[in-house]
Amino acid sequence: MTTIGDHASEMLSALRPDVRENAERADAAVLRPSDQSLVTTSDRLRIALRVALVNDDHACADELAAEIDDAEVVRDVERWGSLPEPTQELLAYCEQVALDPADVGTDEIADLREHFSSAQVVAATQVAAYASFRSRLLSGLRLVAGCGDGPAAEAGVVIEAGCSADGGDLSTPEEAFPQLKWASRIEGSSGDDQFASTLRHDPAALAAQTALREAIMAGRGSLDRADRELAALATSLVNGCEYCCGVHGRRQVELSGDRLTAVVLAEAGPAAIADPQLRAVVDAAGKLARTPAALAEPDVRRLHQAGLDADDVHDLVAVASMFAWDNRLIMALGNAVRPS
């Protein structure tokens, strides 16, 4: 039985079954886990409410508020003084993760650690990042379902592909997307894969997130897998996640055999992509990455005009939403480093 809510379940029915089922499992694992020892369900719902509000997702906010006794206090920052100090700090941190994860650093994690364990910090970050995914996924699916007749969004300026915006030569894919390591800001994270080690502080959320990402990125979907990787790259560029840009830029090149498009996107921007379908994909992913998301019905019509059907667009929305989640975890809990 899903706990994601009636309205959300109706929207998720548009997704392919593997993505839908894993999204429902993720909702339960992150927002309503059976294990309350890390962060209580009440605090998880409070965090999700704040994230919905910063994303202007009022439908989700109202749905969550109905489950929280002090929802009106959580909604109004000026009334937070009536909340315990640790709760105030937790909400402020999670709101920053949702708004701009690039502004979260070692100091913010250290401040939170004065009140919470490493495992609790990871669990709270998972909630903020997941709620960012959820808001974008549902709003994107609503747009696809409600998209009627009307004008399509314009592509905007196109600059010559093959050179950077300032006229310089482009890098090779190997130069543009180097192999990076990731260093955790969370105590108790060690080994070659510090990201997995860090997220194992909240194993249920990690398992749900991993399964959902695998379904979205590698499942038998409608949108070409190389184009899914291009959308992941576009989202990560907007969010400023250097680590994800490296991973998914390389993967796009590998899957497509195209050594130009991903590099052009990373170094010259969307305007340098001449192919109208790929340009529509990266523009839509970039708009969905913003906080609040800027994707609108004319953008969906433009995707259809470029040759993508509804199932293609559902896949695209799922990818861009997934990387709103992944980028936030990677940028808040650690930082990318170049191997010496």
What does this structure look like?
The chain is mainly alpha-helical and 340 residues long. It has 2 domains: 16-145, AhpD-like (Up-down Bundle), CATH 1.20.1290; 152-192 and 220-337, AhpD-like, CATH 1.20.1290. 62% of the residues lie in helices and 2% in strands. The chain has 17 helices and 2 strands. It has helices spanning 6-12, 17-31, 41-54, 58-65, 71-75, 85-99, 106-113, 118-146, 173-176, 194-199, 203-218, 225-239, 242-256, 261-268, 276-289, 297-305, 310-333; strands spanning 181-184, 334-337. Strands 1-2 form a two-stranded antiparallel ribbon. Helix 6 packs antiparallel against helix 7 (106-113). The longest helix is centred in the middle third of the chain and has 29 residues, at 118-146. It is globular. The mean pLDDT is 93.
